[in-house]
Predict the 3D structure of the following.
Amino acid sequence: MTNRTKPALAILLALMLAFAMTSCALPSPVPVDDGAPTVASDFTPSETTTVQTESGYAVDTTDMMGNAVRLSSFPERIVVLDPADCEILFAIGAGPNVVGRSLTCDYPAEVNLLPYATANGKNDPDILLLREPQLVIMGVEDAADTDLVDTLTASGVAIVVTNVTDVNNMYGAISLLGAVTNHVSEANALVSKIVTAVGAMQTKVSEHNDTVYLELTPLKEGMTTLGGATFYSSMIALMGYHNEFEDQEGLISVTQDQVVGRSPDVILTAEKEPLPDAVTTTLDPAATPDPEADALHGKAEILARSEWSTVDAIANGRVFYFNPALITRAGPRMIEGLDALYTLLYLNTQPEFK
Protein backbone atom coordinates (compact mmCIF):
# COMPACT_ATOMS: atom_id res chain seq x y z
CA MET A 1 0.00 0.00 0.00
CA THR A 2 1.39 3.41 -0.94
CA ASN A 3 1.42 5.95 1.89
CA ARG A 4 -0.08 9.27 0.95
CA THR A 5 -1.00 12.44 2.75
CA LYS A 6 -4.74 12.88 2.79
CA PRO A 7 -5.74 15.73 0.47
CA ALA A 8 -7.51 18.82 1.72
CA LEU A 9 -11.21 18.26 1.25
CA ALA A 10 -13.72 20.65 -0.27
CA ILE A 11 -17.38 20.72 -1.17
CA LEU A 12 -17.69 18.72 -4.38
CA LEU A 13 -21.14 19.44 -5.63
CA ALA A 14 -20.77 23.22 -5.46
CA LEU A 15 -18.10 22.83 -8.12
CA MET A 16 -20.00 20.36 -10.26
CA LEU A 17 -22.46 22.89 -11.56
CA ALA A 18 -20.33 26.05 -11.29
CA PHE A 19 -21.02 26.93 -14.86
CA ALA A 20 -23.92 28.27 -16.85
CA MET A 21 -25.03 27.87 -20.41
CA THR A 22 -27.62 30.19 -21.93
CA SER A 23 -30.85 28.19 -22.42
CA CYS A 24 -29.06 25.39 -20.57
CA ALA A 25 -29.19 26.38 -16.90
CA LEU A 26 -28.68 23.50 -14.51
CA PRO A 27 -30.28 23.06 -11.08
CA SER A 28 -28.49 24.36 -8.02
CA PRO A 29 -26.34 21.70 -6.38
CA VAL A 30 -27.11 20.26 -2.99
CA PRO A 31 -24.26 20.98 -0.53
CA VAL A 32 -22.38 18.01 0.82
CA ASP A 33 -20.90 17.66 4.28
CA ASP A 34 -17.25 18.62 4.63
CA GLY A 35 -15.07 15.54 4.68
CA ALA A 36 -16.37 13.98 1.50
CA PRO A 37 -13.79 13.02 -1.13
CA THR A 38 -13.49 15.52 -3.94
CA VAL A 39 -12.07 15.90 -7.41
CA ALA A 40 -11.11 18.98 -9.38
CA SER A 41 -12.64 20.38 -12.54
CA ASP A 42 -10.91 22.60 -15.06
CA PHE A 43 -13.51 22.78 -17.84
CA THR A 44 -16.08 25.54 -18.08
CA PRO A 45 -18.33 25.37 -21.14
CA SER A 46 -18.65 28.59 -23.05
CA GLU A 47 -21.96 30.29 -23.63
CA THR A 48 -24.18 28.49 -26.11
CA THR A 49 -26.67 30.45 -28.14
CA THR A 50 -29.53 29.23 -30.28
CA VAL A 51 -31.26 31.57 -32.72
CA GLN A 52 -34.18 31.10 -35.06
CA THR A 53 -33.20 31.05 -38.74
CA GLU A 54 -34.98 30.27 -41.98
CA SER A 55 -33.45 26.80 -42.03
CA GLY A 56 -34.20 25.95 -38.41
CA TYR A 57 -31.87 26.62 -35.51
CA ALA A 58 -28.22 27.58 -35.35
CA VAL A 59 -25.84 26.54 -32.57
CA ASP A 60 -22.84 28.69 -31.77
CA THR A 61 -20.56 27.31 -29.06
CA THR A 62 -17.13 25.79 -28.46
CA ASP A 63 -16.30 22.17 -27.72
CA MET A 64 -14.13 20.90 -24.87
CA MET A 65 -10.94 21.60 -26.79
CA GLY A 66 -11.91 25.20 -27.49
CA ASN A 67 -12.87 24.59 -31.11
CA ALA A 68 -15.72 26.66 -32.52
CA VAL A 69 -18.89 24.68 -33.30
CA ARG A 70 -21.41 26.41 -35.52
CA LEU A 71 -24.42 24.57 -36.91
CA SER A 72 -26.98 26.10 -39.23
CA SER A 73 -29.49 23.54 -37.97
CA PHE A 74 -29.56 20.81 -35.38
CA PRO A 75 -28.00 17.66 -36.85
CA GLU A 76 -30.29 14.88 -37.99
CA ARG A 77 -27.41 12.53 -38.85
CA ILE A 78 -24.69 11.98 -36.23
CA VAL A 79 -21.70 9.66 -36.16
CA VAL A 80 -20.21 9.04 -32.72
CA LEU A 81 -16.76 7.57 -32.13
CA ASP A 82 -16.40 7.70 -28.35
CA PRO A 83 -18.35 5.07 -26.37
CA ALA A 84 -19.06 7.39 -23.43
CA ASP A 85 -20.44 10.06 -25.77
CA CYS A 86 -22.55 7.36 -27.43
CA GLU A 87 -24.12 6.39 -24.11
CA ILE A 88 -24.81 10.04 -23.31
CA LEU A 89 -26.50 10.65 -26.67
CA PHE A 90 -28.88 7.75 -26.16
CA ALA A 91 -29.54 8.73 -22.55
CA ILE A 92 -30.62 12.25 -23.52
CA GLY A 93 -32.84 11.14 -26.41
CA ALA A 94 -30.51 11.85 -29.33
CA GLY A 95 -30.10 8.17 -30.19
CA PRO A 96 -32.49 8.23 -33.18
CA ASN A 97 -30.15 10.70 -34.88
CA VAL A 98 -27.08 8.46 -34.56
CA VAL A 99 -26.39 6.81 -37.93
CA GLY A 100 -22.90 5.42 -37.38
CA ARG A 101 -20.51 4.40 -34.63
CA SER A 102 -17.05 3.12 -33.85
CA LEU A 103 -16.28 -0.45 -32.81
CA THR A 104 -16.13 0.56 -29.15
CA CYS A 105 -19.64 2.03 -29.12
CA ASP A 106 -21.63 -0.97 -27.87
CA TYR A 107 -24.17 0.33 -25.38
CA PRO A 108 -27.16 0.55 -25.07
CA ALA A 109 -28.25 -2.60 -26.90
CA GLU A 110 -29.86 -0.76 -29.83
CA VAL A 111 -26.48 0.73 -30.69
CA ASN A 112 -25.39 -2.68 -31.95
CA LEU A 113 -27.94 -2.42 -34.77
CA LEU A 114 -26.12 0.59 -36.20
CA PRO A 115 -23.46 0.24 -38.91
CA TYR A 116 -19.82 0.88 -38.15
CA ALA A 117 -18.31 4.08 -39.49
CA THR A 118 -14.81 2.66 -39.16
CA ALA A 119 -12.81 -0.06 -40.92
CA ASN A 120 -11.27 -2.89 -38.90
CA GLY A 121 -11.70 -0.86 -35.76
CA LYS A 122 -9.76 2.08 -37.16
CA ASN A 123 -10.87 5.47 -38.41
CA ASP A 124 -11.53 5.56 -42.14
CA PRO A 125 -12.78 8.97 -43.34
CA ASP A 126 -14.16 7.55 -46.58
CA ILE A 127 -16.28 4.93 -44.82
CA LEU A 128 -17.37 7.46 -42.22
CA LEU A 129 -18.54 9.87 -44.92
CA LEU A 130 -20.69 7.13 -46.44
CA ARG A 131 -22.96 7.61 -43.42
CA GLU A 132 -23.52 11.19 -44.63
CA PRO A 133 -23.14 12.75 -41.18
CA GLN A 134 -23.84 16.37 -40.41
CA LEU A 135 -21.98 16.06 -37.11
CA VAL A 136 -19.22 13.75 -35.85
CA ILE A 137 -18.66 13.52 -32.10
CA MET A 138 -15.30 12.21 -30.94
CA GLY A 139 -12.87 12.14 -28.03
CA VAL A 140 -9.40 13.65 -27.95
CA GLU A 141 -7.68 10.49 -29.19
CA ASP A 142 -9.71 10.44 -32.40
CA ALA A 143 -9.31 14.20 -32.71
CA ALA A 144 -5.55 13.65 -32.90
CA ASP A 145 -6.11 11.87 -36.23
CA THR A 146 -5.36 14.82 -38.51
CA ASP A 147 -6.32 12.93 -41.67
CA LEU A 148 -9.77 12.25 -40.22
CA VAL A 149 -10.30 15.79 -38.97
CA ASP A 150 -9.01 17.43 -42.15
CA THR A 151 -11.19 15.21 -44.38
CA LEU A 152 -14.31 15.88 -42.34
CA THR A 153 -13.65 19.60 -42.26
CA ALA A 154 -13.04 19.74 -46.00
CA SER A 155 -16.32 17.88 -46.52
CA GLY A 156 -18.24 20.42 -44.45
CA VAL A 157 -18.96 18.05 -41.57
CA ALA A 158 -19.12 19.66 -38.13
CA ILE A 159 -16.96 18.15 -35.38
CA VAL A 160 -17.46 18.19 -31.62
CA VAL A 161 -14.59 16.99 -29.41
CA THR A 162 -15.13 15.95 -25.80
CA ASN A 163 -12.33 15.67 -23.26
CA VAL A 164 -13.37 14.24 -19.91
CA THR A 165 -10.65 13.61 -17.33
CA ASP A 166 -12.74 13.63 -14.17
CA VAL A 167 -16.28 13.38 -12.89
CA ASN A 168 -16.82 17.13 -12.72
CA ASN A 169 -16.10 17.98 -16.35
CA MET A 170 -18.28 15.07 -17.44
CA TYR A 171 -21.18 17.40 -16.66
CA GLY A 172 -19.79 19.82 -19.21
CA ALA A 173 -19.71 17.06 -21.81
CA ILE A 174 -23.34 16.13 -21.14
CA SER A 175 -24.43 19.77 -21.38
CA LEU A 176 -22.43 20.29 -24.57
CA LEU A 177 -23.98 17.25 -26.27
CA GLY A 178 -27.41 18.34 -25.14
CA ALA A 179 -26.87 21.79 -26.62
CA VAL A 180 -25.64 20.65 -30.03
CA THR A 181 -28.40 18.03 -30.43
CA ASN A 182 -31.31 20.16 -29.15
CA HIS A 183 -31.77 18.02 -26.05
CA VAL A 184 -30.94 20.64 -23.43
CA SER A 185 -33.67 19.78 -20.94
CA GLU A 186 -32.88 16.07 -21.15
CA ALA A 187 -29.18 16.79 -20.61
CA ASN A 188 -30.00 18.94 -17.58
CA ALA A 189 -32.15 16.15 -16.17
CA LEU A 190 -29.34 13.63 -16.62
CA VAL A 191 -26.83 15.91 -14.90
CA SER A 192 -29.25 16.46 -12.04
CA LYS A 193 -29.80 12.71 -11.69
CA ILE A 194 -26.06 12.02 -11.51
CA VAL A 195 -25.44 14.91 -9.10
CA THR A 196 -28.10 13.50 -6.79
CA ALA A 197 -26.56 10.02 -6.96
CA VAL A 198 -23.08 11.37 -6.22
CA GLY A 199 -24.39 13.41 -3.31
CA ALA A 200 -26.14 10.38 -1.85
CA MET A 201 -23.00 8.29 -2.21
CA GLN A 202 -20.87 10.90 -0.48
CA THR A 203 -22.98 10.59 2.64
CA LYS A 204 -22.04 6.90 2.80
CA VAL A 205 -18.29 6.91 2.09
CA SER A 206 -15.27 8.06 4.06
CA GLU A 207 -11.68 8.87 3.19
CA HIS A 208 -9.03 6.17 3.23
CA ASN A 209 -5.37 5.88 2.41
CA ASP A 210 -6.14 2.50 0.81
CA THR A 211 -5.36 2.04 -2.86
CA VAL A 212 -7.09 0.36 -5.81
CA TYR A 213 -5.36 -1.23 -8.79
CA LEU A 214 -7.42 -1.79 -11.94
CA GLU A 215 -6.00 -4.44 -14.28
CA LEU A 216 -7.51 -3.57 -17.64
CA THR A 217 -5.63 -6.21 -19.60
CA PRO A 218 -4.32 -9.42 -18.01
CA LEU A 219 -0.78 -10.67 -17.65
CA LYS A 220 -0.88 -12.82 -20.77
CA GLU A 221 -1.71 -9.76 -22.90
CA GLY A 222 0.64 -7.35 -21.15
CA MET A 223 -0.81 -5.67 -18.08
CA THR A 224 -2.25 -2.18 -18.44
CA THR A 225 -4.00 0.13 -16.02
CA LEU A 226 -5.23 3.71 -15.83
CA GLY A 227 -3.30 6.40 -14.02
CA GLY A 228 -4.25 9.85 -12.80
CA ALA A 229 -6.04 12.52 -14.85
CA THR A 230 -8.59 9.90 -15.92
CA PHE A 231 -12.29 9.49 -15.27
CA TYR A 232 -11.56 6.17 -13.55
CA SER A 233 -9.15 7.79 -11.10
CA SER A 234 -11.77 10.42 -10.31
CA MET A 235 -14.35 7.70 -9.61
CA ILE A 236 -12.00 5.99 -7.16
CA ALA A 237 -11.39 9.33 -5.43
CA LEU A 238 -15.13 9.87 -5.05
CA MET A 239 -15.29 6.62 -3.13
CA GLY A 240 -12.64 7.83 -0.68
CA TYR A 241 -9.85 5.61 -2.05
CA HIS A 242 -6.71 6.25 -4.10
CA ASN A 243 -5.84 4.98 -7.56
CA GLU A 244 -2.64 2.97 -7.00
CA PHE A 245 -1.07 4.52 -10.10
CA GLU A 246 -2.43 8.05 -9.72
CA ASP A 247 1.15 9.35 -9.84
CA GLN A 248 1.18 8.53 -13.57
CA GLU A 249 -1.28 9.70 -16.22
CA GLY A 250 -3.51 8.06 -18.80
CA LEU A 251 -3.33 4.47 -20.02
CA ILE A 252 -0.09 2.90 -18.83
CA SER A 253 1.68 -0.45 -19.04
CA VAL A 254 2.78 -1.96 -15.74
CA THR A 255 4.92 -4.90 -14.68
CA GLN A 256 4.39 -7.54 -12.04
CA ASP A 257 7.26 -6.12 -10.02
CA GLN A 258 5.65 -2.69 -9.99
CA VAL A 259 2.30 -3.96 -8.76
CA VAL A 260 3.80 -6.32 -6.19
CA GLY A 261 6.12 -3.58 -4.96
CA ARG A 262 3.22 -1.18 -4.45
CA SER A 263 1.01 -3.86 -2.87
CA PRO A 264 -2.42 -2.36 -3.58
CA ASP A 265 -5.19 -2.87 -1.04
CA VAL A 266 -7.82 -3.72 -3.66
CA ILE A 267 -7.45 -5.28 -7.11
CA LEU A 268 -10.09 -4.98 -9.83
CA THR A 269 -9.80 -7.11 -12.95
CA ALA A 270 -11.61 -6.34 -16.18
CA GLU A 271 -11.30 -9.96 -17.33
CA LYS A 272 -14.24 -12.23 -16.64
CA GLU A 273 -13.88 -15.82 -15.51
CA PRO A 274 -15.68 -18.27 -17.84
CA LEU A 275 -18.93 -19.64 -16.48
CA PRO A 276 -18.79 -23.33 -15.49
CA ASP A 277 -21.47 -24.22 -18.04
CA ALA A 278 -19.68 -22.33 -20.79
CA VAL A 279 -17.09 -25.06 -21.38
CA THR A 280 -17.01 -26.11 -25.02
CA THR A 281 -16.81 -29.81 -25.78
CA THR A 282 -16.29 -31.67 -29.04
CA LEU A 283 -17.25 -35.14 -30.24
CA ASP A 284 -14.25 -35.28 -32.56
CA PRO A 285 -11.41 -37.14 -30.77
CA ALA A 286 -8.97 -35.92 -33.41
CA ALA A 287 -9.79 -32.28 -32.77
CA THR A 288 -6.92 -30.09 -31.59
CA PRO A 289 -7.45 -29.15 -27.94
CA ASP A 290 -7.97 -25.47 -27.21
CA PRO A 291 -4.94 -24.38 -25.17
CA GLU A 292 -7.13 -21.75 -23.48
CA ALA A 293 -9.78 -24.25 -22.40
CA ASP A 294 -8.15 -24.98 -19.05
CA ALA A 295 -6.39 -21.65 -18.62
CA LEU A 296 -7.21 -19.49 -15.65
CA HIS A 297 -8.83 -16.13 -16.25
CA GLY A 298 -9.64 -13.00 -14.31
CA LYS A 299 -9.65 -13.23 -10.54
CA ALA A 300 -8.59 -16.90 -10.52
CA GLU A 301 -5.55 -16.15 -12.66
CA ILE A 302 -4.51 -13.25 -10.43
CA LEU A 303 -4.86 -15.33 -7.27
CA ALA A 304 -2.70 -18.04 -8.85
CA ARG A 305 0.27 -15.73 -9.43
CA SER A 306 2.82 -17.07 -6.98
CA GLU A 307 4.80 -13.84 -6.87
CA TRP A 308 1.73 -11.93 -5.72
CA SER A 309 0.99 -13.82 -2.50
CA THR A 310 2.27 -10.94 -0.36
CA VAL A 311 0.14 -8.29 -2.06
CA ASP A 312 -2.30 -6.83 0.48
CA ALA A 313 -5.34 -7.25 -1.78
CA ILE A 314 -4.66 -10.97 -2.21
CA ALA A 315 -3.72 -11.58 1.42
CA ASN A 316 -6.95 -9.90 2.54
CA GLY A 317 -9.26 -11.40 -0.09
CA ARG A 318 -9.98 -8.13 -1.88
CA VAL A 319 -9.72 -9.13 -5.55
CA PHE A 320 -12.85 -8.57 -7.63
CA TYR A 321 -14.09 -8.67 -11.20
CA PHE A 322 -15.46 -5.29 -12.32
CA ASN A 323 -17.20 -4.25 -15.52
CA PRO A 324 -14.70 -1.62 -16.71
CA ALA A 325 -17.28 0.35 -18.72
CA LEU A 326 -18.97 1.46 -15.50
CA ILE A 327 -15.88 3.25 -14.20
CA THR A 328 -13.96 4.17 -17.35
CA ARG A 329 -16.78 5.61 -19.49
CA ALA A 330 -17.81 9.09 -18.43
CA GLY A 331 -21.53 8.69 -18.88
CA PRO A 332 -24.86 7.81 -17.28
CA ARG A 333 -23.83 4.33 -16.14
CA MET A 334 -21.38 5.85 -13.66
CA ILE A 335 -24.28 5.72 -11.19
CA GLU A 336 -24.28 1.93 -11.48
CA GLY A 337 -20.50 2.05 -11.20
CA LEU A 338 -20.63 3.97 -7.92
CA ASP A 339 -23.08 1.47 -6.43
CA ALA A 340 -20.90 -1.46 -7.51
CA LEU A 341 -17.77 0.20 -6.10
CA TYR A 342 -19.54 0.72 -2.79
CA THR A 343 -20.51 -2.96 -2.68
CA LEU A 344 -16.94 -4.16 -3.06
CA LEU A 345 -15.04 -1.38 -1.27
CA TYR A 346 -17.30 -1.02 1.76
CA LEU A 347 -19.19 -4.33 1.92
CA ASN A 348 -16.27 -6.42 0.63
CA THR A 349 -18.69 -8.29 -1.64
CA GLN A 350 -18.44 -9.12 -5.34
CA PRO A 351 -21.02 -6.95 -7.18
CA GLU A 352 -23.36 -8.50 -9.71
CA PHE A 353 -23.30 -7.01 -13.19
CA LYS A 354 -26.11 -7.17 -15.73
Q: What stands out?
A: DSSP finds 13 helices and 15 strands in the chain. The two ends are 31 Å apart (CA to CA).
